[in-house]
Amino acid sequence: MSPAQPQRQRRKEARPQELLDAALGLFVEKGFAATRSEEVAARAGVSKGTLYLYYPSKEELLKAVVRENLSGLIAEGSGIVDHFEGSASDLVALLLNTWWDRVGESPASGIFKIIITEVGNFPDFARFYVEEVIEPAHVLFEKVLQRGIDAGEFRPVRLDDAVHVLIFPLLMLCLHKHSLGTCRGDEAAMDPRRFIATHVDVVLRGLQVAQPGPKAVSKRAAQPQ
């Protein structure tokens, strides 16, 4: 048996993740601009110098938070799409529910609060977010919709707009979670799973090609001879 890994070495290897977790928590609680680097370091239990050893600036730290929580998920989604053998409708439902499992139900759901409230003041990060998250996500969902159209399952739609229709309600669900959703007994509280099921049902009924109903029988033809 190999000797146990020294505690100090294990601690060092865990440090990047600890810093990312601390940063995400503080950025959501206080806002990105209002959070100081030393606060992130203190929450992670390291010095400010150690933080800069891994992430040279607060903006680079935020980029790393996005890569850790969103970029990998998009890559995973691409793998799901490439190997999925069911209908496009089932694939849409799977992707949206997987997204909620991995993002909506986790601290990563707070990232969208940061994006909505502060990204306009940081143009370099805004470009990064568009290239790292928005564009790959759109390519992924457009591919799914086009698959449904090509198979005759979905009717032709403007893909870019349809992707927004699919994704925006889930982003709003995350924002609700970090705003009105924090109020106990709030009448606007909602069940995320029920909401997603309803969203998928409404969207798919709008996308799917209408099936012809039974032919109407004229009253004259129905009369006994």
Radius of gyration: 23 Å
- Shape label: elongated
The assembly state of the depicted protein chains is single chain
Instruction: Let me know the average pLDDT.
Output: 86
Order of helices and strands: HHHHHHHHHH
Biggest beta-sheet profile? none
- Structural class computed from helices and strand pairing: mainly alpha
How many separate helices?
10
Q: How far from one another are the termini?
A: 93 Å
Low-confidence stretches: 216-225
Strand content: under 5%
Q: Helix proportion of residues, in percent?
A: 55-70%
Number of strands: 0
Q: What this model shows, in words?
A:
The structure is a single chain. The protein is mainly alpha-helical. It is built from ten helices and no strands. Helix 4 (58-83) packs antiparallel against helix 5 (88-104). The longest helix is centred in the middle third of the chain and has 28 residues, at 123-150. The radius of gyration is 23 Å and the shape is elongated.
